[in-house]
Amino acid sequence: MILSDAMDPVLAKLSETVRAAGGAKRTLRLRGGGTKDFYGQALEGEVLDMRGYGGIVAYEPSELVITARCATRLADIETTMSEHGQMLAFEPPHFAQFGSGSGSGATLGGAIAAGLSGPSAEATLELELPEDKAIEQLNRWGGKPLPISASAWTGGELRVRLSGAAAAVAAAKTKIGGELVEPEEGESFWTGIREQTDPFFRNGAPLWRISVPSATPPLRLPGEPLIEWGGALRWLCSRADARTVREAAKRAGGHATLFRGGDKSVGVFQPLGAPLMKIHKELKREFDPQGIFNRGRMYPDL
Fold first, then answer.
1. Residues 272 and 280: beta-carbon distance below 8 Å
2. In degrees rounded to 5, what are phi and psi of residue 256?
3. Is the residue at 278 inside a domain?
4. 94, 114, 134: which is the final residue of a domain?
5. Residues 101 and 156 both lie in one domain
6. How many domains, the chain?
7. Tens digits of residue pLDDT in 80-129
8. Which of 25, 48, 70, 73 is most buried, most CB within 10 Å of its CB?
9. Which structural domain range is residue 24 located in?
10. Strand, coil or helix: what is 283?
11. DSSP 3-state of 47
């Protein structure tokens, strides 16, 4: 549903709440559907419920432009776009299983704030490869004009999703080889990776999100790995201590985030050096001069 400016009273009320909190030096925690509450440091501050400020403001399918308020549900945006044969190119995860119950749902504001993306599904191929060979193959394919839109390796099996024109997908199937996965199974698999409902993510151990250069060899860390993004994103279910994981990521030229579970007192995000922390503090001061929004969500000093 496309909305007019009838929601200005809602915005006015939110503005009033923010001004009052700033005057009283009271911290606020912006919250929509709550599906990303698990992500980041411990939650602090009074909840500022944004769910009243939702709805699509404008949509021009021919221009590939959509404007929506922060609390607009992703499901509503995706439904509206699908009616015109369109989709969100970055395929944001909903994480509905982590929502706050009745009336909850992943929102546009939450998707932007979390900065996460994932795969969705068309033709999927499966190949049996060890981890090091899978990384090599993914990087080899990455240098060729193949319509690979998603990849995931775990437990000795590499799955690759192809998207695009029928002729291009058919040609890529021949070049890549492997076994063709049934469409329903493929769609279920990629949804499980995006929404983290795949059995891998139910391991029970803390979940690490490790970003490294795509050609980085296996990190050889304790636990179970899953590789995405052509080798550049390494998920790890592991009870290894934070220093071990972060040092391995740093040696590879990357960083590690304690995505879910585990002891958050070790810090969820990779510690920043003094120059980068200074930049973060200056940005925080510019956008939140009174320091009342989501205090400590990323780092204790922000």
1. yes
2. -125, 140
3. no
4. 114
5. no
6. 2
7. 999 999 999 888 999 988 876 555 699 999 999 999 988 768 899 999 99
8. 73
9. 8-114
10. helix
11. strand
